[in-house]
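Structure in, sequence out. Go:
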């Protein structure tokens, strides 16, 4: 199966993210994080994909029409985009790399939100982010101590809430990630 890929979009997204990651690295060389916040790579090895490559792959997925990330990664990244990502790792290895890039992804989202146009009209909404089915709450251990029970417009769930503020042009102005039991009108 052949997919249509806009190679200029791939390059454009990578250049923006790579410039951002270089600025973050430069900033944190002069302003180091506390030791507990810095995640070390296993056995001191450097991953074959950089944070900017990982973030580019994740961003391109959200810009694509794919519904399944595994299918997108194996068919598109390891297939047709292999020339853009020659050191791409297996799908399971990429999942662990994407966890290590969460900090950069959070900073990138904050940066993009700060670049949005200041307008007079904003729209605010929240979305529930369930981490497991309600019947499995007591067995779930991945988000233990992080997630909570909460109620959304469609009922009870266990997880987190994403609060978004978007301007009239559809640009992300602010966002906040909270426990599920935080009411929408509190923040």
């Amino acid at each position: 199966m052949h997919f249509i890929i806009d190679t200029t979009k791939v390059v454009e997204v990578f250049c923006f993210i790579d410039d951002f990651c270089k600025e973050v690295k430069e900033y944190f060389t002069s302003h180091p994080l506390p030791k507990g916040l810095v995640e070390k790579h296993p056995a001191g090895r450097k991953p074959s994909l950089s944070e900017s490559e990982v973030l580019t792959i994740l961003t391109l997925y959200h810009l694509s029409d794919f519904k399944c990330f595994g299918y997108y990664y194996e068919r598109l990244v390891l297939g047709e985009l292999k020339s853009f990502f020659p050191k791409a790792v297996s799908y399971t290895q990429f999942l662990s790399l994407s966890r290590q890039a969460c900090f950069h992804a959070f900073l990138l989202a904050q940066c993009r939100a700060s670049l949005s146009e200041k307008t007079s009209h904003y729209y605010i909404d929240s979305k529930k982010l369930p981490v497991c089915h309600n019947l499995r709450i007591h067995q779930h251990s991945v988000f233990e101590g992080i997630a909570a029970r909460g109620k959304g417009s469609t009922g009870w769930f266990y997880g987190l809430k994403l609060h978004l503020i978007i301007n009239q042009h559809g640009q992300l102005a602010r966002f906040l990630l909270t426990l599920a039991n935080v009411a929408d009108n509190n923040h």
